[in-house]
Design goal:
This protein is mainly beta and 270 residues long. The protein has two helices and 23 strands. The longest helix has 9 residues.
Length: 270
């Protein structure tokens, strides 16, 4: 029943594109919302994408993440279907998933005879089937059948963030440096361009300069600098001890967080 309901509810464009998509939330969604269609007492208990973490994609290659749907019914769960999309359900501008003719893998244990966890892998590539404009919040469509022919379908069962990957470089000089002398720390902040499969400079973003003393376990923030043209970063700091200098970017709603590999600078007695 859910398959017939799903095909009726979807626009022709989404049906065709979702079924032919290259296999290829807030963090991964854990949401229960009102059903868009259904019969009986079948319920979607939880939807989790990528283990609750944002899906972050570079400019090339593919990435596979897991869509997990927990559902319950007094008679048990027969099967489930799901995919993800960006934009409105009736007119999505990005989508991915196995489609409505490929059931997810449902495992009743160790939950219960009435509750199952159904999972599927979704593989996406940075340029197929989405663009830079689709970075941000994506949604989950799902339909679940129970053994007694009850079903539930939700056009928007949860949401999750799909972000463009970022990268950072760090270079501190001179090396070595006398204690109390001035260091110049440079770097570049860039992010994935899904439209053309390259990295591009990311200007106008706050980036933290951080230092970790040799032998210490954590970095501390020294100052915050705004990235310039082409994502360029440059500032100065006083050398007080040997250790590692790096840049750290917290990310945005459309771009992932990243920290550069620390650049070690040896500080001499002077």
């Amino acid at each position: 029943m859910s398959i017939r309901a799903a095909v009726t509810a979807l626009s022709g464009a989404l049906v065709l594109s979702a079924l032919s998509a290259v296999s290829g939330p807030s963090a991964g969604a854990a949401t229960s919302v009102g059903a868009d269609a259904g019969d009986g007492d079948t319920q979607i208990v939880q939807v989790v994408v990528n283990g609750g973490k944002p899906v972050v994609l570079g400019p090339t290659g593919t990435k596979t993440f897991t869509l997990s749907i927990t559902a319950s019914d007094d008679s048990g769960i027969k099967d489930a279907y799901g995919w993800v999309y960006h934009g409105s359900f009736d007119n999505p501008d990005g989508h991915a998933g196995p489609g409505s003719d490929t059931p997810m893998s449902c495992t009743p244990d160790p939950v219960s005879e009435t509750t199952s966890v159904c999972t599927t892998g979704i593989t996406v590539g940075p340029r197929t089937p989405h663009t830079n404009a689709t970075a941000g919040t994506w949604h989950v469509w799902t339909s679940v059948d129970a053994d007694d022919f009850d079903f539930v379908q939700k056009d928007d069962a949860g949401d999750f963030p799909m972000k463009r990957a970022a990268r950072l470089t760090a270079d501190a000089a001179p090396e070595p440096v006398a204690a109390g002398a001035t260091l110049t720390v440079k770097g570049v902040l860039s992010r994935a361009n899904w439209d053309n499969g390259t990295w591009g400079g990311y200007a106008g973003r706050p980036v933290k300069l951080q230092f970790r003393k040799a032998g210490a376990g954590a970095y501390s923030t020294v100052k915050t600098v705004t990235s310039g043209a082409g994502g360029a970063l440059k500032t100065t700091a006083k050398a007080t001890a040997s250790g590692y200098w790096r840049w750290s970017f917290a990310g945005t709603g459309t771009t992932g967080a990243v920290s550069a590999t620390g650049d070690y600078v040896h500080v001499t007695a002077g």
